[in-house]
Amino acid sequence: MTLAPAIAASPGERRASTFGGNLGAMALREYREALSSRWFVLYSIAFVALGLGVSYLSAASSGAAGVSGFGRTSAGLINLVILVVPLMAMTAGAGTIASDRERGMLAYLLAQPVSRLEVLLGKYAGLAGALLTSICLGFGVCAAVLAGKGGGAGASQFGVLVGLTFMLALSTLGVGVLISVLARKASVATGTAVFAWLALVFFSDLGMMAGTLAWRMRVQSLFGMALCNPCQVFKMWSLNTVDASLDVLGPAGMYATDTFDRWLPWMFGAALGAWIVLPLCAAAMAFNRRSPI
Amino acid sequence: MIRIENVHKRFGRFTALNGVDLAVEQGESLALWGINGAGKSTLIRCVLGLIRFEGRVTICGVDVQRDGKAARALIGYVPQELGFYDDLRVADAVRFFARLRGLRRVDSGSTLGRVDLAGHERKRVRELSGGMKQRLALAISLLGDPPVLVLDEVTASLDAAGREEFVGLLGGLRSGGRTLLFASHRPEEVLSLASRVAMMKEGRVERLCAPDSLPGKPRTVHSIKIRLAPPHAGRARAAIDLLVAGGFEARMNGVGLVVRVDEHRKAIPVRLLADARIAVDDFELLSAEQASACKEGHP
User: Has the ipTM of the complex gone over 0.90?
Assistant: First the structure.
């Protein structure tokens, strides 16, 4: 081997390793890995198929044939989004740090001139990009079919729904990343993420119903509890956008509409914003303290 | 270059490092030597700033706990086994880590060529053998030309040929003036790479020593066959007694003597015989196979 003298000067133009540069490199790597994951592809295909199915069912329920318009489809898609997007985001987030730790990649990565915050935010940004791609693909195919069949009425509501869906994805992705940082094994992280998804999607609705019956909760408390769940916030905000009212949610919805009215979007924005920022901050703090090994 | 001052690390009740002080000067190669659990890998993780610890570690004056990113920019790291993004192509892996080191452009072909991985750029990392992965890790560790290399039992998962090749690469780097800090279980590696050895036991540096004085270092033993000059052929018994008294293992074999000697002492038996006026006609160094055949009684 005669490489020692030659290897001493590796080729490449050197510059300081920057926060943005490292974050970008991490994000791009994570984005590519996520998009090549078969789970992501399956979720995306399922999302497109279910979206088109919801559109057909919405039309059928109104007695029409073929796909319905943007407005009806948006309303129908809300429940689909609550089911599919958090599952997709939380399982993707849960896998990211834990699987790297398990295969020894995390220690090797952190032995490079990168900060832990760069690694965490880079991974989060890459996964967020992959989720956005998947969401845009799912909604985009639905939108193309709807526009082709039924014109553009209600397209703005549909567009807002896409934005809200992305916010929901970001918030649940943060929860998934937090789980990933705390879990020692990828399998534990994924299992915990699925349980958390169940808690957010199913148990919260059932829990609120049980609470209402058992403890005779007041509508204010019910509305307050709903604000503590990103899926419920997404549901209320989306319905408020599509119907301009929360009456469909019953007494708590009517209370919210009557009491807060034009402040509702701000409240929902703040609640969902907090759900995006707080889990990510908690993940960053935990990641900073935990050993990568 | 590397300063390790009063480093303590506990994992619950277990004390992994208990007041380690070490200094590695520029161009020096320090081996960390000790049994499993002695604290070698923990110390390396502290040097890399991967785990929190009490005490202070600086690389070229940069504190790894206060400014870990800047400190790690001065270090190239090769782990025991590379847990890599297996789906990445080799060239993409080089480019990814080059970006993390702030390298705008990198010629992955020539970078890989220097560790004999030219032509493997398009392969996925999972397609590489263990030795090739280690060479890829070495190539990556040298991106950006860091002055310090930290190696954690890098040959532990390699076969004999891969080990020899890898140690050859590291030897070249060492003679090129790179500062090395490495943990190893293999005496031959320490002997060929280290300029000093830190003997670690129970989280402490017990002593610093030269590689030659490493306890348990393998003796390189040769067998030589000595043919006595004809007038003294009958004095073979006396010659054997003389050599055994001189600390050698000697026995008759056909018309000569077979003597086991340590490296650097091959001429001593001949000198001992000459001093005793027992003339030697010829001597030859036996190969391992020849020595083995002699042991089994074949001349």
Answer: no
